[in-house]
Amino acid sequence: MITVTDLRKVYRQGKKEVVALDGVSLSVPKGSIHGIIGHSGAGKSTLVRCLTLLDRPTSGSVNIDGTELSSVRDSEIRAARRRIGMVFQHANLMDSRTAAGNVAHPMELVKAPKDKIRAKVAELLKLVGLEGFENAYPSQLSGGQRQRVGIARALASDPDVLLCDEPTSALDPATTDEILDLIQDLTRRLQLTVLIITHEMHVVKRVCGSVSLLSKGRVIESGPLAEVASDLDSKLARALLPLPASEPIKGALQAGPVLEILFSGDGAKEPVLTGVARHFDIDLNVLAGSVETLGGQQFGHLRVQLGDDADRDAVLGYLRSRGISAKLAGSVADEAELAEFAPADTDFAAETGDSK
Amino acid sequence: MNEIFSNPVLAKALPEAIVETLQMVGISAFFTVLIGLPLGVFLHVTVPGGLRPMPVVNRIVSDIVVNITRSIPFAILMVALIPLARLLVGTSLGPVAASVSLSIGTIPFFARLVEACLRDVHHGKIDAAQVMGSTRMQVISKVMLPESLPALVAAATTTVVTLVGYSAMAGLVGGGGLGKLAYNYGFQRFDVTVMIVTIVLIIVLVQLIQLTGEWISRSLDHR
């Protein structure tokens, strides 16, 4: 269990103060994976440096299973760090050490007995699926294998928390999934508390049980995946269930209202659209859609256009009464609303203006 | 060929000159690495933002000690250090005395090379070592030095080659060795054979050092 409370980090640049973290709070229970997503400059790297005590937070607390990390004295900082295993984007292995040597590194630091180290190294390499690669140097391993060694090394000090900083950002898609599955498997088996910092939504979708969106040093949205995904207005839902910028089908459409509909759980299984069509006796046109399984639940995100004679409020009411989030996305003729969807260089608005 | 073997200077003085040169290079290489390596590590870790920042001390050591020593031409430094050699080894003549000024001349040079080698160790490796709970000494001994070892060997090789050149200069002011032989006989007595033989020997020596250094560096490099 890791709890971060109101973490602030202010850097001084000459006379100017730069607020890198502005009151970040998180809580991740044991045995679960929490994703922290954000663009570059959002404060992800600073957060990592504060959690690993490479930088001291200006204020706030980092607490692992009841032990306060942010206020430990300098003499205890190394023992505190050993409670966090860290996986880096580029593995950061020592080129002069073999795979076994790299995994042994954290144990050598506390002068563990040689036979214990050897046994543990063998066990860890087996755990990450690298049996038989003991004597390989990092240069002889693939990117995915290097990251596996990095994970084994991170686990060598028996940490409570595994902190992964962009663990798959340097890997190809297939290897990314292998590494993510490994992290998920280890989390379950070793009852780890895992924090994954990433800029890839794919990572969050695949393994995270909960997620926080970091922006300008603040957590602006946070919660279990299924929960944030069901909120049609949240930025995370839009990123988790992205709709392509829709190129309206020119000429084929009447200028009807456009709805955004988000199904989740059981709602995703019902034939809602045909239900609407039949109930109101109107035509529907699906402009864009995306379907995902998130946190074990089915989600669907659709952008639908109704015929211009449809009573949109009645349709919205009908959908909501069936537990489906829906909202008006603006009608096709509505230039301002459409700016969000239509690429700026299309002359779409002008054309629909003519057809009115 | 016959001239080489029949040349009395070569037959008599050459073996001694070779030994003296090897002595000078060997002794000063030993002390250069012994003192230059820690000095280079110190210069690297004490920079602002380094492992153990000590900006003021770093400035003093870097600017005053290293840069000033390096800016004095070696020929002048050597002559200026004759009293120090006398103080340390009791004489200002011979290869051992020459090794004092040779070492002092090359220590700052080697320290700068070491500093550059350590700077090339990727910062992520230092971060990784710190996050796994290394002390500063452990970061130096288990990450910085082993990770830059191939580069350090290459730097030491360059330094030893430089020492061979300096040792020839040291020969002129009482150090002995091949430099003295070439100067006394080849230059002052116009004995071309002696000149050519010493040059060839020095070239062979430098080649041997360079090739050995490169071979060791390569066999240590696992990147």
From TrEMBL, chain B:
GO terms of biological process kind: D-methionine transmembrane transport
Membrane topology: Multi-pass membrane protein
Domain of life: Bacteria
Keyword Mitochondrion among UniProt keywords: no
Transmembrane segments: 24-47, 68-89, 95-114, 151-172, 192-213
Signal sequence bounds: none
Domain ABC transmembrane type-1: 18-210
GO CC list: plasma membrane
Localization in the cell: Cell membrane
Keyword match Cell membrane: yes
Sorted UniProt keywords: Cell membrane, Membrane, Transmembrane, Transmembrane helix, Transport
Protein family: Belongs to the binding-protein-dependent transport system permease family. CysTW subfamily.
UniProt name for this protein: Metal ABC transporter permease
Organism: Arthrobacter globiformis
